[in-house]
Each structure stands twice: as structure tokens, then as C-alpha cells.
UniProtKB/TrEMBL annotation:
SUPFAM superfamilies hit by this protein: NAD(P)-binding Rossmann-fold domains
Keywords associated with the record: Oxidoreductase
Domain of life: Bacteria
GO MF terms, alphabetically ordered: oxidoreductase activity
Domain Ketoreductase: 2-193
Name of this chain's protein: Ketoreductase domain-containing protein
Amino acid sequence: MKTVVITGGTDGMGAALARHYLREGNQVVVVGRSRAKFEALLASLAADGVAATGRASFLAADLSLVAESERVVEQIRASHERIDVLVLAASFIRQKRHETAEGHEASWVLFFVSKYILLTGLASLLADSDRPTVVNTSVPGAKAGAIDFDDLESAQRFSFVRSNAQQRRANELLGILVTSDNPALAYITWGPRRLVRTSLAGDVGRAMKIASVLLGAVAGQRPDDAIAPIITFVADPPAGRAAYRGATQVALVQGPHDTDDARRLAAETTALVTGR
């Protein structure tokens, strides 16, 4: 039996993965904002004859807050001795810059800083697995120079496109850090090949919401179909870092200063976390 931790596990692809691994008889920790959605997930499994009681647990958290990510780490470390699979799939789309009660830019914390906290905080539990695997649902392929180290939280200038590219590149560099510390770790940066039908959780304009619903209905794939490649990768994880769009492997973006950039990113993120 594997121990699987899934952030964003109450909706969309995260929920589809939680259902899959619970059906397989694994132990699954779901991190999300809605206990009601978690209970609905368990109810849907029970209706199919799958008893997940004792194998499924829920941690309520808003991962756009540093303190919440740290609390999740503490709770998982207190209740588990090993993690075999960590899926980082939490999402909340914001078209505009939003500052949290902690004074940090919400999207930067949710889509990168929380992942850094979880990966570094849970590193010892992943190290105790025979085949530790991390699936980071951050679409690969951002340019090597996408990160502005002088404006990581987009305080000086913000655009949705720029913010998104910076988060994606940071998550690729995060893979350098964690696989250097644990060479046995499989770190997969993954994005769906095409649109996925989801509820598009976030603070977005009406036009974007409508467009997402219409496009999803016409051309989107079901979450259960979209996650099929992830299930395959986890069953036989590739060594080290890898990047995929759907089931197709894509080249990792190589920058001239990747190792130095990864270390600088770690230092800046540690300063953000400790200095909040």
C-alpha cells in the first residue's frame, strides 16, 4: 500500500487522482479548502462499493498562506512515516495581483512557495520510500529567463502571463534542488496536453469563466482521462527530473545558470518564509 499526498485533491484532476488511488487500496491524504467536496468524494466511492474509511484523510488548508503550508507539513509529519507519491495540484487562478493577510502575493505563494515548503518539509518522508515520486502539475516549458529575481512577488509590475511564466520556471528549478538532495527522487513537471473540464476555481473575470466553460464543453477532456499519463508515470517513475505534456515527454528547458538560479531561488524563498 502506497501513501499518496495530493494537494488540490478535492476538485478536478486532483480529485480524480484521489479516487483512483483510493480505489487501488492506497492510503491517501487530501489537502484542500473544502471538506464538503472531500466528503462528496468519499460518498461517490462508497456508492461504487469502495470503502475508503481509515485510508483517506483530509487536511483543510489555504496554501496561498505560508503558515498554512507549514501547518500541513507538521500535521503530515506527525501522522505519517513515509510518503511514496506527492502530487502538487492545488490551483486558484487570479487574473490580478492579490496580497494576502501575510503580505505576500497570493499566486506566487500558492503556485511556488507552498510547493517549496512541502517538498523541503516532507523530504525525509519521501526519502524513506523505495521509489519516491513527485508530480508537479506546473506546465513545463517556460523560458530560462522567466524569473525576475528583483521582483519575485510582482510588486513592481504584474501581468497574468508574466506571473504564470515565473511560477512555471521556478517549479522547474525546484526540481534541480530536490533531486540534488535525493537522487532517488522522480520529479515530474507535468501539464495536460489539452484543456481539462474543471470548475476553474479562482478570481477571474466573467468572460474568462464563460470561455472556460464553453471551451471545456466542446474540446475539454474529462479529469479522469487527463490523469491517465500521471498514473502511468507513478506506476513506473522515470529517474531524476522529467517533463511531460500529457503522455508526451518534452525537453527540460536548460538555462546557462540553472544551478545558481536554483540556489538563489531557494535562498530568496527561505528568506520569504522565515521573514514573514
